[in-house]
Amino acid sequence: MIIDIHGHYTTAPAPLGQWRDAQVAALGDPLRAPDPAGPVIGDDEIRESIETNQLRLMDERGIDVTVFSPRASFMAHHIGDFATSAAWARICNDLCHRVSELYPDRFVPGAMLPQSPGVDPATVVPEIERAVLELGAVTVNLNPDPSGGHWTAPPLTDRSWYPVWEKLVELDVPAMVHVSTSCNPAFHTTGAHYLNADTTAFMQLLTGDLFADFPGLRLVIPHGGGAVPYHWGRFRGLAQALGRPEPEESLLRNVFFDTCVYHQPGIDLLLQVMPVENVLFASEMVGAVRGVDPRTGHHFDDTRRYVEKAGLTPEDLAAVEERNARRVYPRLDARLTARGR
């Protein structure tokens, strides 16, 4: 089985975006507020949006299952207040749940969180519980920068985050550390902010002792870990200079990286530097990089091609493409096992 642990509903039917536009417009004009129940989207609209996009590509590329969460750039936690984000998260999470109900053998839900700048992170705990226990989410996307590129939030090692970590450990659910839209013009959302955030999150973890307090917490850093695997010597050297233990000892029991790296040399280096057990297959298809590479004739985000040309042994390849995901996402494994897979 090939499990893609990083998919977003980037092709959601138009009423979802229209509802969000109305919600944002109502921040300045309450009379324009949309129906709090959310947009009206039929099952056939969902099927059309999925079958012509993600499901078609999964079939073409031989991907069996995708962990499917709301569109990352749509989270936009910097817009409005906590109530704004809470309503938006509920609607987006419900929609991904509906996808998983329509295609239970192909999609497993993930969830976004109702974060808001300056708001206590503990306020997201009820939506974590609802998404996991009621909607069947196997992971959550956690934004380390709800301000949208201005980095006003405390580091992930700050005690204000502890209620979130406690709940994730209690539910045995990993978090993918994933920012959203940058509203800072200095940082392009997908070309700079996403990769900056991956690197920043890792450095925050390196300088703290989060996993001493939460040894069972699992965090996935997407997009190949930002700069981390490609500057591993820098991070090892910084750890030494700061009097910290080797990152392999202090972090790699709890931190994992996905394969959303869109060229062969990048995947090769990721798999050479990081232990195989720390790398999980992912593509983020129909995501930030949707075009065809003129040098290869294949889509940049067709990451299975890179992984399977990286020279892994059959056992290591199976670990990256399936077994690591089932270990890091135990609720995913339980769901698949219950369906005889």
Question: Helices, strands, pairings?
Answer:
Layout: E1 3-9, H1 14-25, H2 43-51, H3 54-61, E2 65-70, H4 72-75, H5 82-102, E3 107-109, E4 111-112, H6 125-134, E5 140-142, H7 162-171, E6 175-177, H8 189-206, H9 210-213, E7 219-221, H10 232-241, H11 247-250, E8 255-258, H12 264-273, E9 279-280, E10 292-293, E11 298-299, H13 303-308, H14 314-328, H15 330-338
Parallel strand pairs: 1-2, 2-3, 4-5, 5-6, 6-7, 7-8, 8-9
Antiparallel strand pairs: 10-11
Helix pairs in contact: 6-7, 14-15
Keywords: Lyase
Organism: Streptomyces lusitanus
Pfam family, one: Amidohydro_2
How would you describe the overall organization of this protein?
The chain is α/β, with parallel strands linked by helices. Helix content is 44%, strand content 11%. It is built from 15 helices and eleven strands. It has helices spanning 14-25, 43-51, 54-61, 72-75, 82-102, 125-134, 162-171, 189-206, 210-213, 232-241, 247-250, 264-273, 303-308, 314-328, 330-338, and strands at residues 3-9, 65-70, 107-109, 111-112, 140-142, 175-177, 219-221, 255-258, 279-280, 292-293, 298-299. It has a six-stranded parallel beta sheet. Helix 14 packs across helix 15 (330-338). The longest helix has 21 residues, at 82-102. The N and C termini lie close together (8 Å). The mean pLDDT is 97.
Relevant terms:
341 residues; six-stranded parallel β-sheet; three-stranded parallel β-sheet; Amidohydrolase family protein; Amidohydro-rel; lyase
